[in-house]
Amino acid sequence: MKNYNVLSLCANSVWVRAIELGFAHLARTNPGWNYLLTSQQEDGVKPDLFIIDFTRHTEIKPEDIPVKNSRLLILVHAFQRRLIRTLLEESRCSVLCVDEHFLNFRDIVESSARNKRFISPLVREMMMKQPDEATPVFLTEAECKVLNFIRNGKNGVEISQALFRSQKTISSHKRNIMRKLGVRDDLGLKQKILAMEASVS
Questions:
Q1: Facing residues of 52 across strands?
Q2: Are the CB atoms for 96 and 74 separated by under 8 Å?
Q3: Do 125 and 133 contact (CB within 8 A), yes or no?
Q4: Residue 201 pLDDT > 80, yes or no?
Q5: What is the pLDDT of residue 90?
Q6: CA 89 → CA 57, 60, 62, 119, 126, distances in Å?
Q7: Main-chain dihedrals φ then ψ at residue 37, nearest 5 degrees
Q8: Which residues contact 25 (CB under 8 A, 6 or more apart)?
Q9: How many whole angstroms separate alpha carbon 129 and alpha carbon 21?
Q10: Which position has the higher pLDDT, 62 or 20?
């Protein structure tokens, strides 16, 4: 029987709880495999994986990274691009994007078992894309108004009522905004808005 020991270095993280559920599912579907997730290191037990939640961080310093090898799995959001880039450049830690839609927990286990760095597929895809900072995005006045409403969580019906425009016109503005920002769906638009806000702050 294989026991996999996981040590959480952050207290009361909802994302670590989600990771625990993923490991529980992996244990249920793989007879002979078990895991133990704790928040305190036990004497004589060497963790196979350390987890720390950086989803609320904006910056990272080398001293903030408690373990310097690939057995440290750091949790991040997709919009934390600067932090992700720093982690990939300054550390050998593994990086998991909590916005990942489809994740195979077996990949995390197998990577740490081989002392190999795990990088979320979404993070790999994001880092392969060249930043488009050199090309400024120009939005019309109407598109800026629509974008501000979207940023504040308004839907198409609410925006059309507020701007006294048809829903078809609002949809057209939204499509143009998404095209100009290089996103294909509402999730991508939300992440782009969060990234824009993070870069301003």
A1: 74
A2: yes
A3: no
A4: no
A5: 83
A6: 17, 12, 11, 13, 15
A7: -110, 120
A8: 105
A9: 31
A10: 20
d(CA 147, CA 160): 12
pLDDT in tens, 82-103: 888 888 888 889 999 998 878 8
pTM, two decimal places: 0.62
Q: What distance lies between CA 200 and its chain's CA centroid?
A: 19
> What are the pLDDT digits (tens) for 110-152?
888 888 999 998 888 877 765 545 467 888 999 999 999 999 9
Residue 23 near residue 4, CB atoms below 8 Å: yes
Question: What distance lies between CA 121 and its chain's CA centroid?
Answer: 11
Supply the DSSP symbol for 182: T
Can you read off the two tokens belonging to residue 182?
């290089």
With contact defined as beta carbons under 8 Å apart, do 100 and 121 qualify? yes
Q: How far apart are CA 177 and CA 143, in angstroms?
A: 7
Q: Which amino acid is at 151?
A: R
Which residue intervals of 30-74 are DSSP H helices? none
Q: Which amino acid is at 107?
A: D
